[in-house]
Amino acid sequence: MDQFTLNLIVVGITFAIYIGIAIWARAGSTSEFYAAGQGVPPVMNGMATGADWMSAASFISMAGIIALAPVGGYTQSAFLMGWTGGYVLLAMLLAPYLRKFGKFTVPEFIGDRFYSKTARLVAVLCLIVISVTYVIGQMRGVGVTFSRFLEVTTDTGLYIGAAVVFAYAVLGGMKGITYTQVAQYIVLIIAYTIPAIFISLSLTGNFLPQLGLIGSYAPQGGEISMLAKLDQVVTELGFTAYTADTTNMFNMFLFTMALMIGTAGLPHVIIRFFTVPKVADARSSAGWALVFIALLYTVAPAVGAMARLNLSTTFWPGAVDGSAFSKPALSVAEIESNPKLSWINTWKATKLLEFEDKNGDGLIQYFNEPKAVTEANKALAEAQKALAEAAADADKTALEAAVTAATEARDKVLAETMLGGKSMAELGLTANEVTKVDNDIMVLANPEIAALPGWVVALVAAGGLAAALSTAAGLLLAISSAVSHDLIKGAINPNISEKGELLAARISMAFAIALATWLGLNPPGFAAQVVALAFGLAAATIFPVLMMGIFSKRVNTAGAVTGMLAGLVFTSVYIFLYLGWFFIPGTNVYPNTPDQHFFGISPLSIGTIGAVVNFIVAYVVSMVTKAPPQHVVDLVESIRVPKGAGQAVAH
Q1: In the predicted model, what is the mean pLDDT of the chain?
Q2: Exposed / middle / buried, residue 386 (Cβ in 10 Å: 0-12, 13-18, 19+)
Q3: Would you say 214 and 228 are in contact if contact means Cβ atoms under 8 Å apart?
Q4: Same domain membership, residue 365 and residue 292
Q5: Rounded average pLDDT over 133-159
Q6: Number of helices (H) and strands (E), helices first, in the chain?
């Protein structure tokens, strides 16, 4: 059976399961649509939370970011520390108290705690901005996965994914999504760990990838550790050592903190804890979610490291048991003729992997091209272009001299630039010929790079889609709930019937899916980066107001509203300065490079500062305005008592 047919069968079976579950668990009331009737057991809710959490960013992008980080893999471990640490904050500081409050949505809590429709509407605005930013990454993941494994365009993949989400999310609401996410978790965790086990066995002899990461490198008889081998290969090729320390610990701290408090403030994660029967179950769910998430997150560093090593040794076969330059680079003829390397041209067709034999020697040489070499090659290319376009012979004479001079200058740079202990001229290298390796392909291509069986490749396709679709559904439900429950019922039409609200929720879901699909057609970055921006916004807006709402009796309406707006505006503007206004390409004010960041703080880390701004503004404004009324103070006191939570009551 060919790979395409196998992919189609495996993905088709999983989609049929998801839609079948949605039909079986369809929502018949607003309570079931928003909170699954608050009858989900903690273990099952923990598994659904794991699927909701492990998005396209976790499944597809995270290992790629760790693997291909220009600054080394250690710096990118912030993703692991921040995202898992956030669940500890969520379990200890938010989940039980919000479940005790007994409502359906985050804006509803904010509106009641701060006794203001305005506060509720500002929370709706923040929630929609966060969720829409986040969902872009999920739709990108759907498109990338479909474009490769089902051999369709990225746009077509987005449309198919949107149709599947529509089928089970609009029909089932939170009830259908919850049980679908349980199935999706099982699919994605199997799809992630099986290839990792195979690759760990081949590279290190260890069955567990977590041990393989710190184990010995098998192809060299265990004489060197796997990480030491990886460091050797990547540094020979001119890249930063994989285990290199960060050069900006302050920014790494801020980034990790932004991911932690952003995790604790993500609306689509928080609403999962409204689905359990009791307050104690909310904390228990968070614990189980950590267990299920850890099954993937402890494997991700190994997947990233091993994928990077396999990629490097593919293009430099000599690196398998010696130095990278001990044998010639991979040849174009080998790529075209060896069935085990067919994945290279397959991924090249998606434009997520690109290469070019620039010097015409029949080899594809992959290395980190130094800036001086890039500039010398560019000057030579410009001189050659001018010569080719010259019309008069007199002009050609001068231009030929310019080409000769540019060639000599380039050769001088190659003779002076060292790689692996030799000059580039000695190694016969002129330019990096692997011009693009997209972060998002590392997990998806990993089984093919390691020459694993076709069914493993198909399983990874199903897992990538499960990860993207599960989180997309959770985000879309959060958006739908905010619009139908908090905006329509909470502000526009408080007397709407339950049947009318349920219809409004489904229509809102449909519009949210359409918007997410449209945004996914032109995403502003690769999946995990876009998601990281959503974390920054959540850190700067939702997390502080929830913390103050639970643990402070003095913060009032004016403080909460101004704090949220200050955090949202500050963080958004800083992000837009570097990534373009509303992510429109070419509209950025500053280049997104470390030397241009204020105090070395990247746009991905600014959420921590935004949270501090939120806290300060909220407290200052609250101190100079009227204190909250007594019934709100009593409400805060009651939230802190763990016992006595009743059923959710719609407002």
Answers
A1: 84
A2: middle
A3: no
A4: no
A5: 75
A6: 30, 4
Q: Which amino acid is at 277?
A: P
Indicate whether 425 and 456 sit together in one domain.
no
> Rounded to 5, what percent of the chain is helix, strand, coil?
75, 0, 25
Write down the pLDDT at residue 229: 94
Mean pLDDT, residues 173-184: 82
Pairing of strands 418-419, 353-355: unpaired
The residue among 437, 459, 489 that closes a domain is: 437
Among 143, 256, 189, 174, residue whose Cα is nearest residue 519: 143
Q: Given the structure tokens 């302050």, which residue do they identify? A: 250
Nearest alpha-carbon partner for 523 in 56, 43, 26 = 56
Give the position of tokens 């059976």. Answer: 1
Q: How far apart are CA 526 and CA 259, in angstroms?
A: 17
Integer Cα distance of 154 and 142 in angstroms: 8
Q: At CB < 8 A and 24+ separation, what contacts does 16-21 make?
A: 17/183, 18/164, 18/167, 18/168, 18/180, 18/183, 18/184, 18/469, 19/164, 19/167, 19/168, 21/168, 21/172, 21/176, 21/179, 21/180, 21/183
| 650, pLDDT greater than 60 | no
CB 534 within 8 A of CB 607: no
CA–CA separation, 300 vs 199, rounded Å? 13
CA pseudo-torsion sign 433, 439, 443, 445: negative
- End-to-end CA gap in the chain: 56
The residue segments making up the domain with residue 68 are: 3-307+450-522
In a domain, 284, yes or no: yes
Main-chain phi, psi angles of 338, to 5 degrees: -90, 115
Write the DSSP assignment of 259-326 as a string of letters: HHHHHHT-HHHHGGGGSSSSHHHHHHHHHHHHHHHHHHHTTHHHHHHHHHHHHHHHH-GGGGTS-GGG
Can you give the CATH number for the domain in which 40 is found?
Answer: 1.10.4160
Decide if 575 contacts 603 (C-beta within 8 A): yes
Residue 53 pLDDT? 75
Q: Which whole-number Å values give the CA distances from 209 to 193, 205, 236, 454, 619, in the listed order?
A: 8, 10, 25, 21, 47
Q: Give the best-scoring range by mean pLDDT among 18-32, 232-246, 607-621.
A: 607-621
Q: Are the CB atoms for 342 and 252 separated by under 8 Å?
A: no
Residue 531 lies in a domain: no
Whether 535 and 258 have beta carbons less than 8 Å apart is answered as yes
Q: Which residues pair with residue 418 across a beta bridge? A: 423
Separation between Cα atoms, residue 582 and residue 138, nearest integer Å: 18
Residue 127: how many other CB atoms lie within 10 Å: 31
How long is the chain? 651
Q: Residue 574 corresponds to which amino acid?
A: Y
| Separation between Cα atoms, residue 342 and residue 339, nearest integer Å | 5
